[in-house]
Design goal:
301 residues; 3-stranded antiparallel beta sheet; 43% helix
Length: 301
Amino acid sequence: MGFLNITLGDTVKHFSIKNNQLQVQTVDSERQIPLRDINSLIIESSKINCSVYALQALVRERVAVYMCDHLHLPNAMILPFNDHYSQLRVFNMQQDAPRPLEKQLWQAIVRQKILNQARCLALLGKEGHDELVEIANSVNSGDTNNKEAHAANFYWRKYFDGKYGRNTDCFANDLLNYGYSLVRGQIARDIVAHGLQPFMGIHHKNQLNAFNLADDLFEPFRPFVDAFVSENFDFSDKRVLPEHKRILMRLLNLAVTINGEVHSLPNATHVMVESFVASLRDKAVKIILPILAELKSFKYE
């Protein structure tokens, strides 16, 4: 798996593939990057030219390719199709998953999300850690008592110090949405790579959403984005600029504690999705979820 997360902005004119390297041509220079080193690529400008062959090569190397809209926000992702050796077997496991198992998996996901929210507040020096831990410990199977929503209402008041809401149109929420898109896309890539159907969620069941399962599995990672955004930005700014987005790209290189080990965020999502498949295969809750311990970049040996 690659480790470079690259953004192609307004200065880029064209990119192509030659000798298994990404060739990026800007207005005044050209550079080459080995495909095997690339984890993700964000095409931010609609003026950039490329060939279908280049996109095919990136998908073949399992590079997460994001495209942005006119506001420079990620609005699409290219994913490989039929890239798994046992697609039908995995599909059948998803389709045949017992409802009690899905509810138990959702219980584990919501509980870890709330625990990570508690840890986020503690890392940011805000109050509310103990209250969220108490809520997390009361989550039942399927979260039928809706503790996730109760925790969210409490969490966002503490996170924003009562100044904003999660639905407020503001700089802070624009940053969060951009960061969420990046990590959600990373998880969607792993879902497809493991032969799973991304539209078949265990809790999210929106018929118009092609990534219900990505939304399910993304939940425990949200507080990682929340903590990163709060630590790296001044919420008094007005709009998201290219330099802000370059900082947000560092999210994909965060060190994440999962299964008692520290991994890069892309490796952590891989571990989680693999354990989700094991849960479906064995019809038992074996999912391994990320624990927000501290915010630091992963160091490759």
